[in-house]
């Protein structure tokens, strides 16, 4: 896979499995993320399993939009990932990788831009973000900091 368009990493004082459990719980992840605000499961499959789909509800200031995501990776304590589309057009891939380190783990959150060039202006108009790489780098840093605080506070 190519290098991500935006990513960040943080050390967390918790086992990779514990951090994975929080990230793969989409309701709890919404409490930590910058733009992702919640979800609704689509179809019969529910939970963090490969193939499950969810409608993501997103917000940035007064702007609101939704996406459709499919979970592609659900390996407890190792990786959680999903592909995002909007009106049937690829938007992004999001991935969380976990690796044991000392008494805790390292978490890497990554995003790969998938929007075709023709879709960037319409989608940027909806979200209000014209430089997705820059915005998501900042969003990832904020999300990982909240993740660390939430996980370590629960220990």
Structural descriptors:
4 helices; 155 residues; 31% helix; seven-stranded antiparallel sheet; Alpha-D-Glucose-1,6-Bisphosphate, Chain A, domain 4; alpha+beta; single chain
Cα gyration radius (Å): 15 Å
Specify the helix fraction band.
25-40%
For the biggest sheet, the summary is:
7 strands, antiparallel
Number of domain units: 1
Q: Count up the helices.
A: 4
Question: What global shape is seen?
Answer: globular
CATH domain class name: Alpha Beta
Number of strands: 7
The span between the termini is 34 Å
User: Runs with pLDDT <50, length 5+?
Assistant: none
The assigned structural class equals: alpha+beta
User: What spatial order of strands do you see in the largest sheet?
Assistant: 1-7-6-5-4-3-2
CATH superfamily: START domain
Give a short overview:
The protein is an alpha+beta fold. It has a single domain, classed as Alpha-D-Glucose-1,6-Bisphosphate, Chain A, domain 4 (2-Layer Sandwich). Helices cover 31% and strands 43% of the residues.
């Amino acid at each position: 896979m190519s290098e991500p368009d935006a990513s960040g990493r943080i050390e967390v004082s918790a086992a990779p499995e514990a951090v994975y459990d929080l990230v793969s719980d989409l309701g709890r992840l919404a409490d930590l993320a910058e733009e992702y605000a919640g979800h609704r499961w689509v179809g019969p499959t529910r939970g963090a399993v490969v193939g499950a789909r969810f409608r993501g509800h997103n917000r940035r200031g007064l702007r609101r939009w939704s996406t459709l995501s499919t979970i592609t990776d659900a390996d407890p304590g190792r990786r959680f990932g999903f592909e995002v589309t909007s009106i049937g057009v690829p938007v992004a891939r999001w991935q969380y990788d976990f690796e044991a380190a000392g008494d805790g783990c390292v978490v890497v959150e990554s995003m790969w831009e998938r929007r075709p060039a023709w879709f960037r202006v319409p989608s940027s108009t909806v979200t209000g973000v014209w430089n997705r790489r820059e915005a998501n780098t900042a969003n990832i840093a904020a999300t990982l900091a909240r993740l660390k605080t939430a996980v370590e506070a629960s220990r």
